[in-house]
Recover the amino acids of this structure.
């Protein structure tokens, strides 16, 4: 499977995800949700129902206003839209930048 994207995190923040990385991760997850809607030819109303939310909330998040959308919520929505989610954590070997990778 090709890697959709990689977000680097500074070594100083390796134990936690930095604000920029969280924003980037949420942006990537939001793009994947929009892609899932298009692939399944779902309206926002139908997708919102599947995601246990309302259409205005889904619309705001898809439009880029995702400050109130946690990565956890977006991952749950992807699962509701038919994606399998696997989270894998591992220590980095030696010096380097840990990252967040999303496989498609």
């Amino acid at each position: 499977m090709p890697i959709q994207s990689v977000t680097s995190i500074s070594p100083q923040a390796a134990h936690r995800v930095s604000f920029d990385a969280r924003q980037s991760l949420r942006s990537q997850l939001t793009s994947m949700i929009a892609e899932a809607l298009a692939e399944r030819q779902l309206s926002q109303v139908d997708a919102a129902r599947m995601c246990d939310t309302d259409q205005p909330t889904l619309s705001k998040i898809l439009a880029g206003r995702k400050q109130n959308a946690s990565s956890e919520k977006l991952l749950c929505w992807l699962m509701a839209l038919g994606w399998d989610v696997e989270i894998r954590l591992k220590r980095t070997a030696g010096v380097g930048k840990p990252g967040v990778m999303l496989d498609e």
Q: What stands out?
A: The CA atoms of residues 1 and 104 lie 6 Å apart.
